[in-house]
Amino acid sequence: MDDVRLSDAPVSTTARPVVIEAEKLNIIFNAADKPVVALSDVDLTVQLGDFVSLIGPSGCGKTTLLRAIADLVPLSSGKLSINGMTPDEARRNRAYGYVFQAPALFPWRNVTKNVTLPLELTGMPKAEREARAAENLQLLGLKDFGNKFPWQLSGGMQQRVSIARALSFKPSLLLMDEPFGALDEITRDSLNLHVHELWAQTGMTSVFVTHSIPEAVFLSTRIVVMSARPGRVLRIIESNLPRHRTLEMRDSPAFVAVAHQVREALREGHSYD
Amino acid sequence: MTKFVAPATVLVALLIIWYIAAYFLNEPQAIALMDPDGPNSFWAVVQASWSMDRPVLPTPDQILSNLADSIFNYPLDSPRNFLLQTAFTAQAALTGLALGLILGIALAIGIVHSRVLDRSLMPWVIASQTIPILAIAPMVVVAMGNVGFTGLAPKAAIVGYLSFFPIAVGMVKGFRSPDTMQLDLMRTYNASGAQIFSKLRWPVSMAFLFPSLKVAVALAVTGAIVAELPTGAQVGLGARLLAGSYYGQTMMMWGALVLASLLAITLIGCVRLGEFCLRTSRGGRL
């Protein structure tokens, strides 16, 4: 049973090292009229090998939280550490890979050159960075597309390229901000499978922002349900689904039960009016 | 086939209008030169007005044969050879264009990277173009001549003054065109300012460089010709234009105009070739 985590059994919470730790995190944006509290007193712990989804209504600060971890927005108060480093140090150490809402590929570079871009910045020799790009493209099923230009690929493939690019530094932490929000259901399923297999193979600690309950349940070991105005963590749901998952599993009672818990938690924080 | 019909029709119509205009403009002088008692048929008057030595409006065939005469019947180093004059103008235009390109890009880099420069330089850049070049060109020539710069240098300076503007404006826009996500992406890579410039801002700005460069090229040729007018009309197509207007040599003026436009077309063609090569290396899109 070592690959199944039960919600009531806090399995090995102390055994695995902590990757992300947020304590009383507050982020306030100074808007023109009055300050907007994007995150209020957020506590969150992500351990090595976790796949954590942040889910919640628009404006709940899930993207802001991810951007704070990536040092793309400054904290107003509180503590946030990534592998024991501040977000700024973690970014400078290139400790994470980040996948944006859109692929954000450079249209003047072909697929391989998009994937090698981060490595070019470190001055890695050409042969080495191309070998690593080929490896990452292979991992995402894009082996034969290295010479294509981004606009020659479908939206789903472009987003896979951007995931391959995020793996360039061999990060121990992968941050994904609603990467499949703009894609159709069928493409989304296939990409979820890609992400799941990537995580299952590498055990890479992942934080994933999404709007979709099935997506969150399918991918995650833990689901962080957030609510809006001010953005805060409402509940953290541990998933008891097996570590290795298939798309068919989504119809199983266990899956439906977790999805139900998430839906209930979302409803709690959202009065639908 | 229809692709060529429309432009050809326009060309033929223009030529017909030109010959008719040449007849009407030159006819009074043509008649004055003819034997008043002779039996002058209408066709003879038409022919005479189309083959004046110093016509008010020369016909296209006169302009072309005058050009051919200057190019083929004089040695390349003779001032009467139009190719030599075109080379002088091209040299000034290209040197000035290079200056304008360097200045325009340097200004754009400064403006994009520094808020202070953005606020303090941009108004001057715009103000510089509100001064008529005809007013400033003689001053530049005189001022530079006083400190020992004559010939090419003042001409190149004037061309640079004209052509840096579209480059600077276009490149500021280009360097600023990366979206927030692309800039955030570079930040997650811990990219330095120089890396953000070389890997993102510069390549993205190429789509803005070529349109700016086409405007700059057209301005450069005009600028070079204007710059040649106050230099005492020594060399260049501008000098031929001025000399032509002094001596009523309309064919000389028209010849200079034809070569000036051919020069501009050739330079634009070079820009388009460069654009094509870059586009091809980027898989067909800029």
Radius of gyration of chain A: 19 Å
Structural class of chain A: alpha/beta
Distance between the termini of chain A: 43 Å
Strand count, sense and closure of the main sheet of chain A?
Answer: 6 strands, mixed
Count of helical stretches of chain A: 8
Mean pLDDT of chain B: 90
The SSE string of chain B, one letter per element, is: HHHHHHHHHHH
The top-level CATH class of the largest domain in chain A is Alpha Beta
- What is the CATH architecture assignment of the largest domain in chain B? Orthogonal Bundle
Structural class of chain B: mainly alpha
Q: What number of structural domains do the residues of chain B give? A: 2
As a whole number of angstroms, the C-alpha radius of gyration of chain B is: 25 Å
Shape of chain B: elongated
Strand content of chain A: 15-25%
- Largest beta-sheet details of chain B: none
Question: What report would you give on this structure?
Answer:
The complex is a heterodimer of chains A (273) and B (286). Chain A is built from eight helices and nine strands. Chain A has 273 residues and is an alpha/beta fold. The longest helix of chain A is centred in the last third of the chain and has 18 residues. Chain B folds into two domains: 56 residues, no CATH class; 200 residues, Orthogonal Bundle (MetI-like fold), CATH 1.10.3720. In chain B, helix 7 packs antiparallel against helix 9. The longest helix of chain B is centred in the C-terminal third of the chain and has 36 residues. Chain B is elongated and about 90 Å long. At the A-B interface, strand 5 and helix 3 of A face helix 8 and helix 9 of B.
